[in-house]
Amino acid sequence: MYTTDQYEGMLAETVAIRGGDGGRVLAYCARPLGSGPFPGVVLIHHMPGWDEWYREATRRFAHHGYVAISPNLYERFGHGSPEDVAAAVRADGGVPDDQAVADLEVSMQYLRALPYVNGKIGAFGTCSGGRYAVLVASRVNGFDAVVDCWGGGVVMPDDQLTPQRPVAPIDYTADLDCPVLGLFGTEDHSPTTADVAVHEEALKKHGKEFEFHMYEGAGHGFFYYHRPSYRQAQAVDGWDKIWAFLGQKLSS
Predict the structure, then answer these.
(1) Which residues form the Dienelactone hydrolase domain (predicted)?
(2) 45, 46, 199, 220: the active-site residue
(3) Nearest in space to 94 (alpha carbons), one of 141, 68, 131, 57
């Protein structure tokens, strides 16, 4: 709860971390000023790229009391506008899952090593970032909560598997060891409502803790205020559910 006399401060900057392959990866970090300790969150960007929306989202998490890091998963494709870099990634078939998982594991470890982090780390992603959030939390130990916002490609038929994406994230469900919050729209085509239902059944089968919400009248990307896909009421409710979920799962 806010009061008009409380202290607020934030530090946000681009940093360079060592990626999973040992090379440089740029990341955008934001944290509240103060001694903390604060929970941490790894923000996993979408296919439109490492863009302004993810910078703003990173600062938004810091405003809500999290130490947040958003690594550039497209680092190996060079630099330019987020749209141009994302187009190059798309033309090449996407980032290999192993590479993305390695970079996200390093990002989680970076947060965990900071003296003002409380030892609890979450993962948040939208679109392909939601898929990566589920994937990395299933393949890597150390995440304490996952927020998957309309992550397409968690459920994948065999004919959609590629050298970059050889295993569907849902096939790792047995290894997932943290709770999942999922936010989806009924009008989305990736994932469809049927895909979400299959994912839900897999989580139930393996006894995992999860909380899924399906929003009527919303499609893919309903948080993106700068696009026609934005749905204000659903987005506001979705953010409220994110803060409640992470507040419960990542508290000291």
Answers:
(1) 27-248
(2) 220
(3) 131
Q: Does residue 2 form part of some domain?
A: no
Q: What is the pLDDT of residues 19-70, one digit of tens each?
A: 999 999 999 999 999 889 999 999 999 999 999 999 999 999 999 999 999 9
Catalytic residue among 97, 103, 144, 188: 188
Residue 5 lies in a domain: no
Q: What pLDDT is recorded for position 6?
A: 86
Mean pLDDT over 124-144 rounds to 98
Tokens found for residue 93: 């078939």
**Is 51 exposed, middle or buried, given 0-12, 13-18 or 19+ CB atoms closer than 10 A?**
middle
Task: Give the integer Cα–Cα distance in Å for 8 and 196.
Answer: 39
Could you tell me which of 18, 40, 43 has the C-alpha nearest to residue 28? 43
Bridge partner list, 51: none
44 found inside a domain: yes
Quote the tokens at residue 152: 């397409």
The pLDDT value given to residue 120:
98
Domain count, the chain: 1
21: annotated active-site residue? no
241 pLDDT higher than 80:
yes
Residue whose structure tokens are 């970079």: 103
What's 52's domain CATH number? 3.40.50.1820
Catalytic, 188? Answer yes
Active site residue 127: yes
Burial class of residue 23 (count of CB atoms within 10 Å of its CB; 0-12, 13-18, 19+): exposed
Query: Do 33 and 9 meet the contact criterion of CB atoms below 8 Å apart?
Result: yes
In a domain, residue 1? The reply is: no
Paired tokens of 189: 């085509």
Of all helices (H) and strands (E), which one includes residue 83? Answer: helix 82-91
pTM of the prediction? Answer: 0.97
